[in-house]
Amino acid sequence: MARIFITGSTDGLGRACAGRLVSEGHEVLLHARSRDRAAALGDFARQAAGIVIGDLGSAAETRDLAEQVNGRGTMDAIIHNAGVYVSPGRISTPEGHSRTLAVNVLAPYLLTALVKRPGRLIYLSSGMHLGAVGDLRDIDWTERRWNAAAAYSESKLQVSALAASVARHWADVLSNSVDPGWVPTKMGGAGAPDDLAMGYDTQSWLAVSDDPAALVSGKYWHHRRPRTPAPEVTDPEFQDRLTDRLAELTGTTLFQDGRPVSG
Question: One of 152, 200, 219, 220 is an active-site residue; which one?
């Protein structure tokens, strides 16, 4: 039995993944953006190990969320599932960041730095990252004209590189990113062509399986198969520039001189 924390687990892929892991007998710590969303879980909440609450679009709430998770003890695995897709304009967080960047990249970065280090980390990516621009100069979309699809694609390139960077720095952690495919969730839409069950299968497998194929690190996965990500994802120079930029934006350093600072 493993203890797993899943962000964004009130609906969609996160809720489905949590359901599978609970049914297999694992202790799953759920995450909701608000108390109302937590209450909507109903009976399922009583089957889980607990619920922590915090809006990942707020740095302050994300930091508080990390404290809540740490108060539950050390997790065996953390699945960074939460994400936002497109918005008609650049929505600013309380700290002034793009909400897309904050939820999809800054929050996983902060939680990686602040939550007690688990044995396994899984970050949700997207095949859309393959079309992203790897330029980090305007990572927060303060200078460019807003493009929701491009901002989302860039955020998934960045979180995939973060996963690979963690794998490179933390030899005692299995860190991977997963493309769940285009599945019929609230985010993907009812007409999405991929199978919903396959959309959460890989991350649940990576979180708990003792299959030798799952006990690897630094990979980018799709439907239990390692795939080749964008070149930036596995480029140590890009990874370092990214984590330096994220440290600047959050005020929290994850790595220093090649050594983990916290976690």
Answer: 152
Query: Residues 4-31: pLDDT tens digits?
Result: 999 999 988 999 999 999 999 999 999 9
Active site residue 186: no
Q: What is the pTM of this model?
A: 0.93
Task: State the Cα–Cα distance between residues 255 and 134, nearest whole angstrom.
Answer: 21
Residues 156, 200, 219, 220: which is the catalytic one? 156
> Which amino acid is present at 59?
A
Query: What is the token pair recorded at 237?
Result: 């120079």
- Report the DSSP pairing between strands 220-222 and 225-227: antiparallel
Catalytic residue status for 219? no
Q: Which three-class secondary structure state does DSSP give residue 166?
A: helix
Nearest CA among 257, 242, 256, 259 for reference residue 109:
242
Please spell the DSSP secondary structure of 80-146, one letter per residue: E-------SS-PBPTTS-BHHHIIIIIHHHHHHHHSPP-SEEEEE--GGGGG-----TTTT-SSSPP
